[in-house]
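Example record

The entry below shows one chain as it appears in the dataset: sequence first, then structure tokens.
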Amino acid sequence: MDSRSLSLFLSLSETLHFGRTSEACHISPSALSRSIKQLEESLGVVLFERDNRSVTLTQEGKQLQEYARETLQGWDNFKENLQSGSGELKGSISIYCSVTASYSFLYDTLREFRQEHPKIELKLHTGDAAYGISRITNEQEDIAIVARPEALPDKLAFRRITVSPLVFIAPKSGLRIPTSKDDWAQTPMILSEEGLGRDRVDQWFRKLGIAPLIYAQVAGNEALVSMVSLGFGIGAVPRIVLDNSPLVDRVQILQMDQELGYYDVGLCTLKKRLKSPIINAFWSGKH
């Protein structure tokens, strides 16, 4: 067994798709299959259950997945510590954030980090910020920009970047603005599928004693602003998302007696990953 075999196995265990894994790892599907078969023969166990429609991890595969993560991270940390003695870090770091965060927070940070550490490869993945915590806990990413949850898991580290209020937004025209409890019960809502924003809105409606009339559920605050600007309903987004949206002039912020609270926005990683000189260098930089 070598690090390449473990790396291929780990990638496949996360995608559960031979085609996507072979493409991402720059290896042919047949070579990937041979590597997995050799690994299974070496261990004397079946790691994946396969049929014409799906690939799933066996119980032994799940055990190896945890071992592979720890082993490869330990190896990377060891290499990085050796390199840090020479004063020049080499390797890669994966970062996950929303589209808004990529240009409102990361632009200057990545530029400075690149200048200080030119031999570190930056891998930036964007998507719904609500998935940031799970992508870190599942060890799919090294660092994510997230809204701090109500209860931060003990194994996670969080470093604040900024604080942003969560606000209700409505289209500039074409939709009656609710002024009473009955109005809110009949107002179409555009809600996030999950995440802190959705939790806060659900809490707000529970305190009001009514259930929201959900018109649509979307992934990503940027998509939510777009739906609201088209007049489909009212939604709630962090103010920083609205301030950076090209659609800011097409919506209005509703002034509420009862606020939705704030987003504590910052960097998140596994505490154990801070042992990596590369991740620690990014974590300790200017943000």
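Notes for this example: The two ends are 40 Å apart (CA to CA). The mean pLDDT is 89.
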